[in-house]
Amino acid sequence: MRSTTLDAAAARLAELLTIGGGGLADGAHGDLEFEPEIDLRPLERRVPPADVWAVDGGQALVADARCLQLIVTRASRVRYRDGACVLEDEGDLRAHLLGGIEGRTAVEALELGLAADTAIDVNLLRDRWEWDAVARSIDECERGGLVLVDGDLQPDWRIPSSFMADLLARAEQRGVLVAGVTKHSSLSRGGAPLLGQLEREAAEALGGRSTWWARVAHTRHDLGGFQVLVARLDPDARFAFRVDLPTTADAAAALGALSALSDDAAFPGYPYPLTVADRLAACPPWLRADVRMQLDELFDLAGVPFDVRERAFADRHDLMERA
After folding, report:
1. Domains by residue range for the chain, with CATH
2. How do beta strands 241-246 and 33-34 pair?
3. The whole model's pTM is what?
4. How far apart are CA 319 and CA 323, in angstroms?
């Protein structure tokens, strides 16, 4: 039986997706300053940097008592030298206890100088240590190299803006370019996804196999100073992606170099070092199960009865659905 409200919702969604137009916005961040006009420009592929790093993060919920949660996170790094992968580092698996009075300890462990009553969740924890991995990659990257980040260059809102500004300044001093590539962007125009609209417009204006880019927005310098671009990086790519670069970067040159890293046959148009980092960082079900078994072993050593664990962590909703 179809919902009585589905017809109206579908009609409105169809209108947004097909008509387009209207103002630019970002559903995830409201502090971007958008360009008055979007100019689609042809993109020329260039030589890739000799030294390329890629960073991505992952997380998994291991045990959930609602008032208490045990989660694990990790930040993985990949390094390519002269086109060959020379490092695949999964990163340390970090366990975090969230909820209730555990917040103060979690805040202190972040080492960001945040207030003791700062709300802590998995997004902040993952971001904190992912950007720590980015910082280490910048320090180890050769001059003229590139550090790729999964996502935009705007960390969790609780991370001080000075953190990102200092990070990009250090990268510039070392001659290292930092670029953020977002797989699923929240950018919109007229309430509809912006990237899909630009893909259709570029195909009509430049051709179906064209590579192209456009500047969409930028941030203030005190927020880290980066520009927001949209680019189709390979002729065989189905999709364009949001790419964030420092405001001081030459967008055409940087995107041309990024295009040279985006010709993998499995997923053309997305930088292949980031696909490797994504695979390493993932926390699949088997890893969650393995950590849970280790947790149970530690509970055994601590003398926590099985029924106490079950009462705390059993998913009663799941049990009712299976009944």
Report:
1. 23-283 (3.30.2170), 286-322 (no CATH)
2. unpaired
3. 0.91
4. 6
